[in-house]
Amino acid sequence: MNPESPSPATDAVAANHTLLWSSEADTQAFAARLADALQTVCGDALIALHGDLGAGKTTLVRHILRALGVSGRVKSPTYAVVESYALPAFAVWHLDFYRFNDPQEFEDAGLRDLFASPGLKLVEWPDKAQGYLPDADWQLYLRSTGDSSRTVTLQTPSARGAQLWSACASP
């Protein structure tokens, strides 16, 4: 993993960071750091995951959930739309809007209350619910650059996102 040094939190709002993951082990290591950093925001964050099919969005989420202590099978919510996990410190929801044909399906699915509640929301294919999702704390754009390597562009458009990045990127 090759993260750049974090900026002070006030400079990091709306900042872009480029990460290079040369293997799944790098993805796993990043997920572990993120899991630790989530404690600084009490697990309350919205992380939007962008990327083509096979870019590694679900793999990253699985590593994050494992690092947070989720045991057992971690299913992709492609068909169910949402999988929830009750952790001792906070709740986690993994959502996948890939099958949405219209952003209105977000409202039809009754997800507004879920996003209004505290906890970690990990959202794949957020563009499919554009206009209905609250603003994300992190926007992660994953791009496959080989069999197991990824280039990730991380945007921190909120103060909470900047705080999370600062805690995640610091040694």
Task: Please provide a written account of the structure.
The protein is α/β, with parallel strands linked by helices. It contains six helices and seven strands; from the N terminus they run αβαβαββααβββα. It has helices at 9-12, 24-37, 57-67, 104-108, 112-116, 159-169; strands at residues 15-21, 45-50, 82-86, 91-96, 120-124, 138-144, 150-156. It has a seven-stranded mixed β-sheet. Strand 6 and strand 7 form a beta hairpin. Helix 2 crosses helix 3 and helix 2 packs across helix 6 (159-169). The longest helix is centred in the N-terminal third of the chain and has 14 residues, at 24-37. It starts with 8 loop residues before the first helix and ends with a helix. Mean pLDDT is 88; it is low at 1-12.
Please give the alpha-carbon distance between the first and last residues: 13 Å
Compute the CA-based radius of gyration. Answer: 15 Å
Q: Please indicate the percent range of residues in DSSP E strands (runs of 2 or more).
A: 25-35%
Shape by Cα distribution: globular
Which stretches are poorly predicted, pLDDT < 50 over at least 5 residues?
1-12
Helix content: 25-40%
Number of E strands: 7
In spatial order, strands of the major sheet run 1-7-6-2-5-4-3
Mean pLDDT comes to 88
* SS element count, helices: 6
Order of helices and strands: HEHEHEEHHEEEH
